Amino acid sequence: xxxxxxxxxxxxxxxxxxxxxxxxxxxxxxxxxxxxxxxxxxxxxxxxxxxxxxxxxxxxxxxxxxxxxxxxxxxxxxxxxxxxxxxxxxxxxxxxxxxxxxxxxxxxxxxxxxx
Amino acid sequence: xxxxxxxxxxxxxxxxxxxxxxxxxxxxxxxxxxxxxxxxxxxxxxxxxxxxxxxxxxxxxxxxxxxxxxxxxxxxxxxxxxxxxxxxxxxxxxxxxxxxxxxxxxxxxxxxxxxxxxxxxxxxxxxxxxxxxxxxxxxxxxxxxxxxxxxxxxxxxxxxxxxxxxxxxxxxxxxxxxxxxxxxxxxxxxxxxxxxxxxxxxxxxxxxxxxxxxxxxxxxxxxxxxxxxxxxxxxxxxxxxxxxxxxxxxxxxxxxxxxxxxxxxxxxxxxxxxxxxxxxxxxxxxxxxxxxxxxxxxxxxxxxxxxxxxxxxxxxxxxxxxxxxxxxxxxxxxxxxxxxxxxxxxxxxxxxxxxxxxxxxxxxxxxxxxxxxxxxxxxxxxxxxxxxxxxxxxxxxxxxxxxxxxxxxxxxxxxxxxxxxxxxxxxxxxxxxxxxxxxxxxxxxxxxxxxxxxxxx
Lengths: 115, 457
Prior knowledge:
The complex is a heterodimer. By secondary structure, chain A is α+β, with helices and mostly antiparallel strands. Helix content of chain A is 24%, strand content 30%.
């Protein structure tokens, strides 16, 4: 199976939510969404983001938007004005998730337009 | 007058600090019925309370008044109605400043409404007597933990007071802690006569409001595929063309930069999202999984199918409290050996502080080497190439203001007493600033009364 970055088959946007952040992952095709619903679990995202997020990861689905929404519960170094980090609002966490490398079936790639 | 086929509602300000060109160009570059503007974030309310404590004429978003000053004659000539949560913790003072600006432009008879009732800082003891514990929604901790340090307390109020203000003829509506989507839902309730129990319609208006509430974030700003976005410098701020049946089209003025497609709108729908099935607002619960998006022409996305559920019996209250101090500073370290020298600089700072008796725990300090993989450290291996320079960014925090300030004295000396190539100290010594803690809670709706007052220029 081809090994690609998540950004090949999905987009993302992130922002702050209390002491954590949310990352909305938007599949680029129906095929990509069906694949990601199975492959991009909360656990996979938690392991990938281990150096940023020190809390649990929760996942929600929105089929109509081809979206998986991840809540990273402790990812801002305190959150709000208490954080010392450059990215105190988690603005770059979406791009960090999109750097995830995974094996994607060729059929999914064929059905997903390149960015 | 027959009801309009659709109403154009725009957002020209996604947050306090957004470009003033957003609202100005929305009014100047095409047709518009309503201009909404969002100025408030959680920490903003605390800052505004402090400003008001120092000067009773302050405590609101002054940018709003500057913006009205720039476009007042055009707003009045075109009949564009404005809704903003610019009132902060002093909406009456904001109103006075707006009336003064209207008078300066010779604009008389313009009605300005003020919505009050969201500020409960002075009512905390009364609410406690009424059985409101205001426990932290996230942690369950009692308010007593921080009660003596609370600096602001505001209820997120809904869209119906906005509709009332519009029904009473206001051209400019100034609110305090009104929800962001409520800025858009308010005019739709007013125009279409939506009722308090029409949950699907209220959810539709809430979704429309959520899509536009961060300004250009749904028209091509902060978009993954940024290379495909034309002319971001001239990005058009978003407009929703809303119909009485709850369907709406997201678009922007013709000829502006940016991009509106299913992806840019979806990007914004997931922004700051929690459980997509249950987006709770004071006016009802919106189900983000119900909405269908469809591209209908260039830069036009048609949205339909929104479903909602009944409102909860509570309002969300946002409290802020004093939570210690922090100081942050940075220096630029040039190559050769930029990263190694920056690491040495950081070590020197901590050692000199220790020599003087100041130690900061691992949770109280931070070092970043900006340019050498800060945002995605540990997730993505940065290029092995030596960076031409790095920005050394250091910070500390804690309850002791003097200790936090002491740190700030040891950064700048590195210019002459560290390795060579240390520069960029123009900002001077880092100083301790207050950390503002955020405390979300719930309060029963029966204890909160909003009040709409209408004034005339």
